[in-house]
Specification:
By secondary structure, this protein is an alpha+beta fold. The protein is 18% helix and 35% strand. The strands form 10 sheets. Strands 32-33-35-34-36-37-39-41 form an 8-stranded mixed β-sheet, with helices on both faces. InterPro entries: AB_hydrolase_fold (IPR029058), Pept_S9A_N (IPR023302), Peptidase_S9_cat (IPR001375), Peptidase_S9A (IPR002470), Serine_Peptidase_S9A (IPR051543). Residues 465-677 form the Peptidase S9 prolyl oligopeptidase catalytic domain. Belongs to the peptidase S9A family.
């Protein structure tokens, strides 16, 4: 029998309306009743999925068998060293290494072997020890290559301890700083490291300056506006420290010469509500990517001594969203998005005509990555599609050639020619065309069972991507599809704006329209919906909106108690989220709108499909109580199911940390998905 959660009605009045929350007691993480309830849920889920153990084990072995367990990355040049990471069979975590640079071509490495002179910078397996959870928040080499700053988390709460290592001697320095956030930046001489800390709401709000050997760290910036996060980085030229304060809709940048770490950061341009901008250093000028009067952003230049004076370099286009800019000594690369696909544009430094790099597949995702050097004629790119495993290219600016350096090996006889990918377009109720990316084995009989994935928030795009684990579905006759719903960024900034605040429901109706399109077009029979975090809100809302369209729903760390969470400023991240969802605490219109779609609030007595929700006790982004309350209300009110909750009792937002643990977690989810449509071994 499923656990039955006790009801302790808690009434809250907002804008003349009363909210009754019978399961608010589950917020008490340290209450023995809460832990007992979560453990009972885990036991019930184990009981209800016990018959899938053989299938889970088969899928785990398939994932493992297709993965080259002893592998390594393509080396990246920075200064006098080539940096790379490698994995070893049987070990959960990666190992970071480097070798001295000899020439401009990456050294030829063979998996399972080490080069003469290899230096192990960090071994994640040694750092993790026997801990059931391990994660790193930063790993940053000083500009001169002599020191390493790195931070570790052993619980999943994303509060890291920062340490420093002398790479010339291999010794750890005495400096140790607990409670830091992700990221950080070195000064030019490597004597000083800047890091970030969070407030009680888990908002990064302070930048600190730490001088090695000192215990008197200085707060160089504190952000008092609760809507804003702060972060710090170093330009590729290593000339300037860049301190950014940003909300969901506004940003403000400060710069400081990295050679003078004790100096004062200077504001580039004071914050203006709704204006976002970022800064990159390009030799004798700054590059500014901004949306001031340019909804899809434009690229401008600015003098070093007057960075707030912007002159357009790439004008705004309605059909092209500029994503990022990378400056090098002799050229500039611009990462952009158009027609639901990413691309790269090159601006030669000699005044030559700008051009775009072309790629042969109809669906793909490409981005500059790992370009640490400022003076280079090669642009490193990552590339993948739904049938092409992750690949690393160097693009030669002189010959305009793409040079394949590495493609992730997929063992077990994988042949991309056995699969095909498609782009379909669904029509939403308001007439908007919604792109859908699809991959399927060529020999699959259609209509076929389908896993439909979606996210649709924060302008985050779920671009076409390859997955080894997904092959276990495709080879069992599944279709896999991504619904690129509004609220994401796939079709530009307006696509995002049409799926947020009081237009959020467009995300949900887009997803339902995508499911119906797949069925009407002969692609899909039974459809399983899947989404995580804000994508968990998506599939949770869809469960209320059109439960009859789905044979099952997988909601991972789902944001399903949206209204209660956004009403409570004491919870982590609530105030910073008001620019994304609205402020229901002070705005009755937002309150009324959110109440009509928040999954927890809208569970009713209709039949619901089976639902699997997964969460982690130490998640600091979407707290565990949201899916726990949702499951309790579904069992109390709804028909159908079963409704299952699985809680990792020692992990955070990303679930279990080791790669083998993550594979087992995915095998569990995939076996449940297959079981929903009667596909077994």
């Amino acid at each position: 029998m499923p656990p039955v959660a006790k009801k302790v009605p808690l009434e809250r009045a907002h804008h003349g309306d009363t909210v009754v929350d019978e399961y608010a007691w589950l917020l008490k993480k340290d209450d023995p009743d809460t832990i007992a309830y979560l453990e009972a849920e885990n036991a019930y889920t184990q009981e209800m999925t016990g018959h899938l153990q053989d299938l889970q084990e088969s899928i785990f072995k398939e994932i493992k068998g297709r993965t080259l367990e002893t592998d390594l990355s393509v080396p990246t040049r920075k200064g006098a060293w080539w940096y790379y990471s490698r994995t070893e069979e049987g070990k959960q975590y990666g190992i970071q290494c480097r070798v001295a640079a000899d020439g401009d071509s990456p050294p030829q490495l063979e998996p399972g072997t080490s080069l003469p002179g290899e230096q192990v910078i960090l071994d994640g397996n040694q750092l993790a020890g026997d801990s059931p959870f391990f994660s790193m928040g930063t790993s940053s080499i000083s500009p001169d290559g002599t020191r390493l700053a790195y931070s570790t988390d052993f619980s999943g709460d994303e509060r890291f301890t920062l340490r420093f290592k002398d790479l010339e001697t291999g010794e750890l320095l005495k400096d140790e700083i607990p409670g830091v956030f992700y990221g950080g930046a070195w000064s030019a001489d490597g004597s000083t490291f800047f890091y970030t800390t969070v407030d009680e709401a888990w908002r990064p709000y302070r930048i600190h300056r730490h001088t090695l050997g000192s215990t008197d760290d200085v707060v160089v910036h504190q952000e008092d506006d609760e809507r804003f996060w702060v972060g710090i980085g170093l330009t590729r030229s290593q000339r300037y420290l860049v301190l950014t304060s940003g909300s969901k809709i506004t940003s403000e940048v400060r710069v400081l010469d990295a050679a003078t770490p004790e100096g004062e950061f200077a504001v580039v341009r004071p914050r203006q509500s709704g204006v976002e901008y970022g800064l990159e250093h390009a030799a004798d000028r700054f590059l500014i990517l901004h949306n001031d009067g340019a909804v899809n952003f434009e690229l401008a230049t600015a003098p070093i001594d007057d960075p707030g004076s912007w002159t357009p370099l790439i004008a705004h286009r309605d059909d092209t969203r500029l994503l990022d800019v990378d400056a090098f000594k002799d050229y500039i690369s611009v990462h952009f998005r158009r027609d639901g696909l990413t691309g790269v544009r090159i601006l030669p430094g000699d005044g030559g005509e700008p051009y775009e790099i072309s790629f042969p597949e109809p669906l793909y995702d490409v981005a500059p990555t790992g370009n640490a050097e400022f003076e280079t004629s090669l642009l490193r790119l990552s590339y993948t599609s739904m049938v092409t495993p992750p690949s690393v290219y160097d693009y030669d600016l002189r010959s305009r050639e793409l040079i394949l350096l590495k493609q992730r090996a997929v063992l077990g006889g994988y042949d991309p020619a056995d699969y095909e990918q498609f782009r379909e377009w669904a029509t939403a109720p308001d007439g908007t065309r919604v792109p859908i990316s699809i991959v399927v084995r060529k020999d699959t009989n259609r209509p076929a069972p389908t896993l439909l994935y979606g996210y649709g928030s924060y302008e985050s795009s779920i671009d076409p991507y390859f997955s080894v684990a997904r092959l276990s579905l495709l080879d069992r006759g599944f279709v896999f599809a991504i619904a690129h719903v509004r609220g994401g960024g796939e079709m530009g900034r307006r696509w995002y704006e049409d799926g947020k605040l009081t237009r959020k429901k467009n995300s949900f109706t887009d997803f339902v329209a995508s499911a119906r399109h797949l069925k009407a077009g002969g692609w899909s029979g039974e459809i399983i919906a899947r989404g995580g975090s804000a994508g968990g809100l998506l599939v949770g809302a869809v469960a209320n909106l059109a439960p009859e369209e789905f044979a099952g729903i997988v909601a991972e760390v789902p944001f399903v108690d949206a209204l209660n969470t956004i009403l409570d400023p004491s919870l982590p991240l609530t105030v910073t989220e008001w620019d994304e969802w609205g402020d229901p605490l002070h705005d009755p219109e937002v309150y009324a709108y959110m109440k009509t779609y928040s999954p927890y609030e809208n569970v009713d007595g209709r039949p619901y499909p089976p639902i699997l929700a997964t969460t982690s006790l130490n998640d600091t982004r979407v707290l565990y109580h949201e899916p726990a309350k949702w499951m309790a209300r579904l069992r109390a009110v709804a028909q159908g199911g079963p409704f299952l909750l699985k809680t990792e009792m020692g992990a955070g937002h990303g679930g279990r940390s080791g790669r083998y643990d993550a594979w087992r977690e995915e095998a569990f989810a995939l076996s449940w998905i297959l079981d929903r449509v009667g596909v077994t071994e």
